[in-house]
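Worked Example 4.2. Read the sequence first, then its structure tokens.
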Amino acid sequence: MTRKPGASLGGPAAVRKGIRGLHPAYFGLVMATGIISIAARLQGMEVIAEALLWLNVIAFAVLWLLTGLRIIRFPRRFTADLLNHSRGPGFFTTVAACGVLGTQLFLAGKSQQAAVALWFLAVVLYAGLTYGMFTGFVTKRAKPSLREGINGGWLLSVVATQAIAVLGGLIAQQSELYREVTLFFALVMWLFGGMLYIWIISLVFYRYLFFPFSPADLTPPYWINMGAMAISTLAGTVLIGKAPDFDLLQRMLPFLYGMTLLFWATATWWIPMLVTVGVWRHVMRRFPLAYDPLYWGAVFPLGMYTVCTFRLAEVTELPILMMIPHYFVYVAFGAWAAVFIGLMHQLSRCLCIQNT
């Protein structure tokens, strides 16, 4: 078949284009799939949880393969993304993906060693991104305005911080020798994650209230406003659960309970706000709803809110809260299914182009 001039390239050319333009935040797929799997397991949906677990392992491996190829084949594009104020924070999804997948494996009882390895990988990636990327932002000469440079995706740095705290708190029991050290590190990360949220959300909220917004500006990562608080809540419940194993946590229990409830209340406040803005974007302003890898950043908070509320109900012994995850899990899974169908549709279109 003769290709028309200007037609999309298929085959290897299409693959190269896909790798070159791979969004740094694509590991949000692993984050979203992992937390939905955990939410399903907590609600007794073992078949769904198990299927999503193995799907997530495959997605994690494929995304790292594509990322490695991107670094090797397109190092300049990769570096440009790393130092881009809009796209750069998306790299924190690699850290959060390690934390969520490690938590998924740990809670499923599949591989304690793999969970520990993923935690160490998350810590190394976190250190490199935090001090490498942020230093690059500080020292670069040309910087965007606050209106152009800040968005909800910046809060992925908070999610990454708290993902390390969650998994660190879980794996601490693996080593009697380093248990207290690991729990202390998890506590420090949880506290810093809360402080980092305050820094960033102040700028995001300022952007919300005092700069014009078009429908195109309200990208899905703004749901991370809620997701960052939801995972902070989950990290707090993990630390509360580990208090009997560490005297410092035992002495801090009132503070842990108070801050954890504060985080959950903040996450809860964001949900109606984000839904309202979403209605304005897609219904009132008729912004087209089409697949975008950034939508995984909207699915993750829904799953995380389900899980953190379940755990909060357990540690606070407030059974009335259990009503929320019992129904919210279906909202989260429905959102995951919708975005996954969008991903499959996009991949099928790419295959059709390659075969023409």
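Now turn to a second chain, presented in exactly the same format:
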Amino acid sequence: MLKDHILAAAALLDAAKSGNKAKTDAAAAKWYANADEIATSLSGANPQNWPVDQMKSGMKMHLDLTLQEATHRLQGKYADDIQDYDKIHQHLLGLADLLSSGIEKQFPKRFTKS
């Protein structure tokens, strides 16, 4: 799924560069569907700590921010691109915290505090 996620992102960028709206829309739909698949899979691995709606929301936010950054870069709006990157970075740190705390809650005996 993660390999497909990266390949779908690359296909979306290629479509966007071509200027073909139909191709871009189709590639975006495939990318967002893959993100839902990843979110559902993660939630299935730890549903108590990673509710599917929360995981889908987090993945959608990641894609929305990434698409915004890519659009600004393709348009040559580099100052906006840099601000977008900072937003993505902060969002992914939060998502990483959510995932790591979920693992810790799922396996508390493996994470003893000394």
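Notes for the reader: The mean pLDDT is 95. The helical segments are 2-18, 21-45, 52-74, 78-106.
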